[in-house]
Amino acid sequence: xxxxxxxxxxxxxxKQIIRETDLIHAPNINPEANVYLKTENLQIxxxxxxxxxxxxxxxxxxxxxxxxVIACSAGNHAQGVALSATKSGIKSLICLPDGAPISKVExxxxxxxxxxxxxxxxxxAYAKALELRDEKGYTFIHPFDDEDVIAGQGTxxxxxxxxxxxxxxxxxxxxxxxxxxxxxxxxxSLNPKVKIYGVQASGAPSMFNSVHDGHIERLESVSTxxxxxxxxxxxxxxxEYCSKYVDEIVTVTDDEISAAILALMxxxxxxxxxxxxxxxxxxxxxxxxxxxxxxxxxxxGGNIDVTILSRVIKxxxxxxxxxxxxxxxxxxxxGQLKKVSEIIAxxxxxxxxxxxxxxxxxSDVIGCYLRIVLETRNYQHIEQIKxxxxxxxxxxx
Length: 397
Prior knowledge:
The protein contains 15 helices and 14 strands. The protein is of the alpha/beta class.
């Protein structure tokens, strides 16, 4: 049984291992709310996962420790288990989906674990881990559906109540549900008035669907840049805790997640992975009712793969009106390009790429198309430039 005493015990056990992460004021995330960020992306291993993993391993019997542990993960739980096992002098084997970011795979190895890459997604790695557990006798460390793991994650809730006594709401990412179960249980036990909102990626809404329909449902597939929360099916325990203690669950799109990653980077100088930024995305795009409230966005992890970071930033720029593409139909005669560039320059737009294409099918013989990518300030700026081009007699396609 999960109890408040167990979460306090986890806090005591973790005291010498983890860092109590800072709560940072971030009013620009949503000017209509008083927003704070709980920076678990700055936790050791770059994620909250080490809390639950270490507490679970600390509770093993000597016999279980001697046999070693096995886990499966999209990446962050892997690193948490690897570090926790190594610090406890225990052998660990981690099953990872073969699509996990290389940075997470290498980090897991560097923390002292053996790695087994499994074809597919998290759920395929989970099945392989259970198979190896039965075959070799390892102790399985579940990433979310375990009372000790949930208690470890719940220590974040205890910290939040101490760090912000006048807390109104907490917004928490949901994958399998271990994090929000622990945080919601701890906070609701201490102050039932605090609202707990969960956030999933719209491409992996397993808990969202399950709670909405009143029973656990399994998704056929998941697709999101938030790989850390791309889980097809919630846990039995976590489903119960979410149903009981979470006030509302919402979803955010990959574009919204990208915009949140960019905002955290630019405004707060914080690097967040997709799964870590969904809480900020929900508050940025008013998916949860936090107007006028003291709200905490739990930034659960910062282990983003640098190879996709540039793509995420590009999407974030488009989503926040900082970049746009224009397709302009012109008459193919001298001075047309000069006319377009003068209008854009006068309004402060910055052209970053340009493509000029003569007569294709469907256009006039003397027509051409001009495709321009430019840097802009916001959506209002984009509309201003478009209107100026139209006022000059140019046709936007």
